[in-house]
Amino acid sequence: MREITTDIAVIGAGSAGLSAAYQAASAGADVLVIDENHLPGGQLFKQIHKFFGSRAHQAGTRGFQIGQELLERVQKSGARVWLDTLVYGIERDCSLGVIHDGAHYVVRAKKVIVATGAKENYMAFPGSTLPGVMGAGAAQTMVNVNRVLPGKRVVMLGSGNVGLIVSYQLMQAGADVVALVEAAPEIGGYAVHAGKLRRAGVPILVGHTITRVTGDGQVERVEIAQVDKQFNPIPGTERVLEADTVCLAVGLNPMTELVWMAGCKFCFIPAFGGHVPMHDGNMETTVPGLYVAGDVTGVEEASSAMEEGNLAGVCAAHALGLLTDEQAADKKAEINARLDALRAGLFGERRRTAKQQQLDAMQAEQGGNDHVG
């Protein structure tokens, strides 16, 4: 087994991980980025739509273009990137068990930033294991990355931004979105995305759910029904849609396995996808030297993930003495101001409150320690 050392190991080469790597490497840290995929960039390279927000968050720029710019910055910063590489274990001393190029490594890092993102939730119903039932993110990968159309007639379950955006992108790729089904009484995503679907003639059926899927070895028919206030199907309201694909956009949950393994403490916040690692204002967990950033801290969106990555990278570099107190304070103030702007408004306020829950929980755990931001 081989052994290497580095100042900072970043697990995950998505928007948060690349941002963290850039900040830390730019401060002079020896940075190793590790990702199990054969291409870096995470979700950004699946996002062909234009981002919202402010100029600071590249509003009007498509996600894959942002990913290209971020990747170029990381490459110029001098950070090393290991792709097709698996991190299978982590210790409290920030040592990692890694498989790279078929060989086992122990990576000994002074600091570790976990930016592993999130995974799709699934929903079980009769026929949910038939070929043709998949996560919306899987369908987006097929269309935008692999240029493969998953089906010709699609039923989308879930009206959050993922369900709305992927539905429109499937239409752009040539699929017919038969209907978008949502159990809640109103859509969960931005009205601008829903408006594009409505103008294209896609029925958005709120107060409905999928009750079963049938077909001879694959999806052929999708039965839907109205639901009551407890989200139970109402007998007699069933109807059948002809379709060959069902996409599930029913939420995400943080990929926290490595953080659990390291012994970090967690809190449960439903708004962020479930159990999330407790961390302070520097993105450091209850395990000293272990930082988190992006959707692993609670599911938000790419712009927030990038800013959390920026914050973790700056704070890890500062902890190593590569930035002065004044330099770190200035950078953190700028990043936190941008994060606050992202978490303002109708949807952002819920996320701001949820993030504060994490900080409050950690502060209580540590007895009011000033380490908590």
TrEMBL record:
<dbReference type="InterPro" id="IPR036188">
    <property type="entry name" value="FAD/NAD-bd_sf"/>
</dbReference>
<keyword id="KW-0560">Oxidoreductase</keyword>
<protein>
    <recommendedName>
        <fullName>FAD/NAD(P)-binding domain-containing protein</fullName>
    </recommendedName>
</protein>
<feature type="domain" description="FAD/NAD(P)-binding">
    <location>
        <begin position="7"/>
        <end position="309"/>
    </location>
</feature>
<dbReference type="InterPro" id="IPR051691">
    <property type="entry name" value="Metab_Enz_Cyan_OpOx_G3PDH"/>
</dbReference>
<dbReference type="GO" id="GO:0016491">
    <property type="term" value="F:oxidoreductase activity"/>
</dbReference>
<dbReference type="Pfam" id="PF07992">
    <property type="entry name" value="Pyr_redox_2"/>
</dbReference>
<dbReference type="InterPro" id="IPR023753">
    <property type="entry name" value="FAD/NAD-binding_dom"/>
</dbReference>
